[in-house]
Predict the 3D structure of the following.
Amino acid sequence: MFDQQLAHKATENLKRLREKKPLIHNITNYVVMNYTANALLACGASPVMAHAQEEVEEMVSFAGALVLNIGTLTPYWIDSMVKAGKRANELNTPIILDPVGSGATKLRTDSAKRLLDELSIRVVRGNASEVLSLAHKDSRTKGVDSIHSVDDAADAALTLSRELNTTLAITGAVDLVTDGKEIHRVSNGHELMGFVTGTGCTATVIIGAFLAVDDNPLTATTTALAYFGLAGEKAATKASAPGSFQVGLLDALYSIEEKQMQEGAKIQIQ
Amino acid sequence: MFDQQLAHKATENLKRLREKKPLIHNITNYVVMNYTANALLACGASPVMAHAQEEVEEMVSFAGALVLNIGTLTPYWIDSMVKAGKRANELNTPIILDPVGSGATKLRTDSAKRLLDELSIRVVRGNASEVLSLAHKDSRTKGVDSIHSVDDAADAALTLSRELNTTLAITGAVDLVTDGKEIHRVSNGHELMGFVTGTGCTATVIIGAFLAVDDNPLTATTTALAYFGLAGEKAATKASAPGSFQVGLLDALYSIEEKQMQEGAKIQIQ
Amino acid sequence: MFDQQLAHKATENLKRLREKKPLIHNITNYVVMNYTANALLACGASPVMAHAQEEVEEMVSFAGALVLNIGTLTPYWIDSMVKAGKRANELNTPIILDPVGSGATKLRTDSAKRLLDELSIRVVRGNASEVLSLAHKDSRTKGVDSIHSVDDAADAALTLSRELNTTLAITGAVDLVTDGKEIHRVSNGHELMGFVTGTGCTATVIIGAFLAVDDNPLTATTTALAYFGLAGEKAATKASAPGSFQVGLLDALYSIEEKQMQEGAKIQIQ
């Protein structure tokens, strides 16, 4: 039922991540900085948070990936993201964008679109409404309200992925990932993840870490989401409320063994 | 001994909160953002942190309540609070203010007073010295140093509540809440709460969430404090040191059942 | 093998800290604010985070120590640090600097050097590359790449300590502390500390708290590091992964008894 080659790829990526310990440069929101830094450490990566315009170009030059997250954005921070992102593009360092709240306010939608316009972004991860808000006005992509089935969502994601020329990860009970050609679905995860702030942002940084060790954005994203979701499942075997679940999730990211990854990944190719 | 109607109201408010899942817009300090977001999620509410002047008016228009907290203030952030607050007032969305450190520095005292002057604030929550620092220079409210008994404190709070035209919550070993007419006292809580940073700020956001489902600021505040204090008591049955207590407090907010709320609320009407 | 007088001093300092509960003013990075505030509370100190230029001079005047940490610096924040630091110097309030990432970007190196130039700093704590990056261009201090043995590191630290006229704490598997005259080594600690973000920053705030109760920067630093490392050892007896270790570390800071401190401190005088 689940793809064994992709489960194997997940295991390989996790192994490479723990060996290479890539530096991940984050320009992200205040709410999740501590938790996503800890998640990156638990995965085996090395986090740095830096947003000053005087240093972001220098800092990103040491990084294996750049994570941009607009959760508590101001125009200054978006300018920093553009600056770091342009340098990352020059160095061919992968960028992942988390358009937190895009669609909710004009500043968020405009900022996310600006980042997509000015930078070459390898992966965008968000929930359905965030991701679909990125479509151009005159685009063929249907809005969130017109999606009536899983197939509608997949069609919209495929179209939008081609339009934006990036890999899209729409996360939810089942995650949908597409590079505009193939569609993968990941069914790992646990409902308690919705009761911990920043689990979406944490999925994003883990994809960022996997992009630093896997050049294929589709498989990097899919395997990262399987790994993170599996950590959620593992945490839920010990915790039944969000405080201890938040702690257990970090423990699980650190503790998942390669064999567990191989057996636990729930990735399907559509 | 404890008021049974208010215990019932606490149970009702908690139930409504978990059903309605109101969005709570926070303009707050860096220290507690992660923890108060998690506390709101554990309660059943939906948190958003947003402070950019370009978006706060739009963001607050989706919210059931606005939380203003000056813990790591700068003038920019206070301006954002005024902007969001004015829109909240137009929409009759309740605002709660946490005047962290008011009385300690001129910037904090002046900023808290400015927010009270320019906005209609439904509830202010702080410790005794923070709340009493809000009195006008020529006010009849006695300062913290002249309070020699619980009755003195109650008198000062009543006077100040009328003067500022807002409900006041002075939290401590026993919380005192007054709308300028009635006085309620809440004796739920545990001393380990004083060893976790931001438990005051967390009390504030929970009051904010209760304000989104209860139009009466006095009962919303009192019942929220009983719920939060009860969570502290529950957490202390499992944890005896601040790290695990901080985690257990989130677990307890999530796990408290209606029956426990009804039986555990310790609210008295003076 | 380990110095018993310094173990006794550690016990004494911890006792004084818990009795005096000094206010520690932090101008620090976003990533660790919550955790270091909680660590200070768990130690018995009282944390405040404040960075607005309108209030830092007033705030620091209440403090027993000032902690400066450049982890998510911008020029505005560095200016605030200078402002607070000058006032601290006037009041003879001890300052500790954590030059996070100095050596990695020009902004960080220049900012750390500016703070050392403009302020009288009692202690600097960092890893070897951060601390050695602070040497003047024409200094006799050897760079990190030319250090080939533990003795080389000690020589470089001694020279640099005299050059910068401050006590240096270079933390790692074994911590090296020198005031330019004596060298102390602390071997407390646990490898899981490297998997929790901000444990270096937490060591810094605990040294800050000890500086508030011990006028000797060498013994304040050494005993604080022994205490923090011992907390790590204690946490590791219950936790084997970073999420629960992060929580357990706070529990241990709170719970360590004087007898445990006396018996557990691993400090050596070179």
